[in-house]
Queue: 3 jobs
Job 1
Amino acid sequence: MEDNKKFKLIDKIYINGEFIKPNGTEAMNIINPSTKEIIGNVILGNEVDTQNAIAAAKKAFKTFSKTTIEERSNMLKRIHEAVISRADDLTKACVEEYGAAVKAAVGRTQLTANSFLWAKEVIEDFEFTKYIGKAKVVLEPLGVIALITPWNANNSQIAIKVATAISAGCTVVIKPSEFCTIQTQILAECFHEAGIPAGVINIVNGLGGSVGAELTRNPDVAMISFTGSTKTAKIIHHGAVDSMKRVILELGGKSPNIILDDADFTKAIPRAVTSCFGNNGQMCIAGSRLLVPKHRLEEVKELIKIAVENTKVGYPWESDTFIGPMINENHYNNVQRYIKIGIEEGAELVVGGEGHPKGLDNGYFVRPTVFANVTRNMTIAREEIFGPVLSILTYRTEEEAIEIANDTEYGLGAYISSSNIEKANKIASQIVAGTVYINDVMLEMKAPFGGFKQSGIGRECGIYGLEEHLEPKTILISNENI
Ligand code: NDP
């Protein structure tokens, strides 16, 4: 795959089944993070556009909420097919605009397309009416849902959120990340192509402070489904209180990766590198704290050096690249700042460091960096860096490993490597995290995904995600007084 040089102008938003010129006039450049070239321009929507989108979604809800499971299931199938037919475009855009390594971008496109099929399978087996004692309980769609997505997972987050909302019979207004507008535009065209009724899916490109804020305060929005940072989530959660909105908040993490003494280190250590550096290290679930037995530290350092050497950082369109650039200049500077802090606070630099990797100073590339002798209170052990920076901490006993693992304000993910599955399971039961991966990273998109503590509220995916979009109504019928 080659870098695509065609200039993209995205000057329309998608409201009520039409691509229309926004009321907002602010323009923003779209920059290829691998080359810093301007590859396009987007005109951003504003509060008025957001209100129009909400009004369209509110109107569409009246009929869409009454559709049958079969009708919605067919819509999900049609979107899946539309995304498959644009798979190459979507992958290319993800590489070009976001800097995803092409292999990862292909996977992300598949995840995006398949999210609609998984959702379809979930509603086909779901009982929207249940009987509890004397009561009939009907699970009704909640209303208009605002979907707010981050730049590091824009496509798949839009897909998971739209698929679930459609499954539930809810209509949506999407505020995507403006750093991913080419990808969003392709998805909008897929929704349109799939013939989804007008107003069911609306998309307003725009800034968090205008479009996102309007979605948060508007009383016609029933729920915010947000994926992004804990900091922004707190603003949204506060703002949602006045109109008593429900919120699903999928947030950041500082996930521990515990390597037990009995693990095969030759497999576990390379896995630790990929589970932290995947998606260019810009991954909510990144295993960014590596916990290893103290007496094995020197061996771990040697294995880490080899694993990082074997992990190519480079242009994302090259097929063997694993780590591409950071999304933009701000984020590049932020990751550099953390590397500097790590050095200043006294952590030992095992590999990497400040600056660009050799030969890659034209883009926002950072050197994959690993620190050892990191202590629990160091900034790099506590804050989400969101780049390819791994911190190694040591433990003496398994109890201490669990204590260190849980010593974080986050609780999104955790990783355990061990040759003893029973023991790994026992440790998993003591880790405060939404998902625990034992011996590998795996995907089960019908299982709930979300975080404990400051990693979030609520769950996405499968039945758990669906139920967040439904409001139970209890109906009690007396036959005596007919
Ligand atoms: P941000 O929180 O900065 O932004 C997320 C979205 O919120 C963007 O679309 C942003 O718009 C919008 N936003 C910003 N301010 C407001 C506001 N006041 N009201 C409403 N919306 C607003 O996160 P990033 O985009 O930087 O994404 C990275 C973060 O996302 C990381 O912390 C990562 O861990 C987390 N994440 C969590 C996942 C999970 O499933 N748990 C998955 C993927 C990422 P704008 O761009 O205009 O600011």
Job 2
Amino acid sequence: MSIALIVLAAGKGTRMESDLPKVLHRIAHAPMLWHAMRAGQALEPERTIVVAGHEAAQVQASVLGYDPEARVVVQTEQLGTAHAVAQAMPQLEDFDGDAIVLYGDTPFISQDTLEAMSVARARHDIVVLGFEAADPGRYGRLVTEGESLLRIVEYKDATEEERAITLCNSGVLCADASLLADLVKLVKNDNAAGEYYLPDVVALARANGLSAGVVPCDEAETLGVNSRAELAGAEAAFQARARSELLENGVALAAPETVFLAWDTVIGRDTEVEPNVIFGPGVTVESGARLRAFSHLEGCHVSRGAVVGPFARLRPGAELAEEVHVGNFVEVKNAYLAEGVKANHLTYIGDADIGERTNIGAGTITCNYDGVFKHRTTIGRGAFIGSDTMLVAPVSIGDGAMTGTGSVITEDVPPGALALGRAKQVTKQGFATRLFEMLRAKKAKQSKG
Ligand code: UD1
Ligand code: CA
């Protein structure tokens, strides 16, 4: 069965108090819209259509950033959810299969739930995702009779009796795409809100002798974001779930509540993550690595057996091969550290390639930026970079070469060579003793006067 996703994302999100459209607010470093789209990916949709409206150009750019093949349609006036779906329908005229409607501000519907809906379509013409609400509030209510769904009534239009129902509408629904196209055309806006309600397609289908059913899910999945406080709540819910998934997959987290993950963080089993490690987007860590306390990682790859931190910073393009050690107060950006490289203290490595088993001494800096351009530093295998070496890029250090402590290296160093780029030491016997005597005498004279 082919699937098309229709993701509604036209709303302004007034209660966010923001210039950014609601669906672009981030949870774990990704727009909430991406989370909604990602859930739908499990169904391997043949087509994805996002309905944008408020700040449509920004929404479109974000959608294409996630899925360049997605189609974005613009709903210029937000006349209701059925009207929004109707805007997507011309994109499905040549499509044969089911359409699933998702909401861009409901980011946590699980893949299993969407699969269950798709399966339930064998029994019903329309499948609606429902949930038992702890506090049903203003949600639409699902009016059922045994297994089947009769209609959905919006809170504003509901009777006292209907308001007492606790089975609520998540908004997500699934139906044959051409049936859905026909039904949304029939929806009217003669209701309390004066809007075209998508949930009305249920009663319309029933009136035409079709069947509708409910697939239930956990209320946590239907969590919608309407305010900054709810966004913070969604972030916390995401983090809690992501941490427990890592634990289930064999990652060691001694203090899970202090570790912050990104939407796409991947960590292999038996890797140890110490307290207060922060992940930005685009991080993959292989099995059996150790991420020590207070490290910050983004856009990087850490291989098996590597040790990072405490207090290390891996920035985009940092690629650590197996058994690499990156220690405290070391920053790595856009650099490849081959197997067994050690950079254990107080170092900046940017725009560099470092060969196997090379040791980078404390305080070493790749001076990669001249104020306008960035330049690369290349260091061979088994080299020894003395402490406090300034590597003024572009520069290369050969295999097995050494640089003297405190050197400023501006010229390439051939393999096996020792480069010294510092002033020669001058030692003056007894000079310190005489200097101290002179200074102390001067101070004594001043304090008398
Ligand atoms: C909707 C449902 C309600 C359900 C609730 C679950 C309707 C009429 N009601 O109510 O039964 O319990 O969701 O959260 O559908 N949107 C558009 N264009 C529009 C209108 C809305 O794209 O013209 C988008 C919004 O940006 C949002 C989503 O559709 O992402 C839902 O719209 P919203 O107005 O929040 O519906 P609710 O009143 O919450
Ligand atoms: Ca809503």
Job 3
Amino acid sequence: MLLAVACGPSTPSGGKSSGNEKLVVGFAQIGQESGWRDAETASIQFYAGQNLDTIDLKFADAQQKQENQIKAIKSFIEMGVDVIGVAPVVETGWDAVFTEAKDAGIPIVLVDRMASVDESLYATFIGSDFIEEGKNAAIEMSALLGGTGKIVQLEGTVGASAANDRKKGFEDEIAANHPGIEIIASQTGDFTRAKGKEVMESFLKTYGSDIKGIYGHNDDMALGAIEAIKEAGLKPGSDIVVVSVDGVKGIFEAMAAGEANVTVECNPLLGPQFFDVCQTLKDGGTVEKWIKSDEGIFRADTAAADLPNRKY
Ligand code: GZL
């Protein structure tokens, strides 16, 4: 795990809160598993770097291990930071360390993924409605296939709220309104491009051209699947339609090239909102329990025009 003072000199601070005129924030990031994650990290570090006189950011990269995130949170508590931000890699296993933070008078801000803990253990969740994202992906998939077809699903990290809810939103919508769409295989690709390609290769070996669509819980896995589809001699975007979530530049390039069809946007540029919430909490203010990201749905027909405007 890298625990680096990402921006500014480390400010010794003890006691219940930093007692320091600077806003001292600890952020326990998941890792670098996707382009989306890298964009979020950049947003957080860039904002802190632009405000060195008022923000002291301590940043930890947990390399996708929950135990590293927990270690980082404990170290932030030791340091007596003002606020702790965390993108929980999985939903469960947070009660004890969040209780330690609460007992130390340090608020927890959940960023981009939820934790299944009592509401009293965190100040707010800044992030998307993953169920809505899954539902929208299902509607788009069904429209692309004219309501009928066998599809496969590449799921995100096992236990992650973004994976759990994108799966639930998608499957509930299909079951309720699109009886002709059949999910013939579903497996985790851990939100990474490499694993997404590997799993898609195995799906293609088993089902071949029976597969008419792939739903990826993120664009990175869908981009891996596109590589596998091409290597199997099929055309992504037409033989097999591609629907995924995030809205990273790479999927816009694939859509513009006719190799993907839809991406449901999930905004990673949460740095400004995150630090705004942290300052409010440091100043004793209150925040909404869920600060929901606004996001759109982007399709191949506008991808080339959209691409220059994309910020991540
Ligand atoms: C969503 C975030 C997810 C992205 C993936 O808020 O947690 O994690 O959709 C990333 O790309 O790995």
